Fold this protein.
Amino acid sequence: MLNLKFPFSKSNIFFRQVSLLAGGAGLAQLINVISLPILARLYSPVQFGEFTVFFAALTVIGAFSTLRYEAAILNEKKYSKAKGSFILTIVSGLFVLFFLSIIITISYIFNLNFFGLSWLYLLLLFVSIILFNIFTALYSWCNRQKKYGYLAKGRIYATIVVVIFSIIFGYIHFSGVNGLIIGSLMGMGFNVLYLSKKINLKKMF
């Protein structure tokens, strides 16, 4: 298991928390930089463009899908209300998913692109939003519980998973599917599973 240790005094909680998050983000970014020359050989500029459009759409839609309930997870003083906000952060995405499912159906039947994405990528976007809402809830809950080590390690592990699967799918060359997008979804899914296990959802509810 990854063991992140930093040279700050245990009494200096603030610096320890900042160092954990910054260290996790920095190491994850380093892994991305190291893997970039390999990925650049496996994927074309067009595929990188598709990847950028896909995650731009996820970022925009994801901002609405949680309805900002994740803020209440951090701000609520009562445990019961924070837990309710945790559930709402996940469930709130159903409204966005309902409308997105209609768009996917129209795109599939009439062979139309929305947001510059085909029906297949819209379907992957559907899955991404589900993962995004769950991850956002878990991330906010870990912040509330000050489990910064979980967040740092989760980010590093997820980045490793993204790189590995992106390279694998790059070599396999699945027809009509962008391996960069699939790899990123695998990483997000792994992070969700990791954080879910660490905070022990069964015990929480």
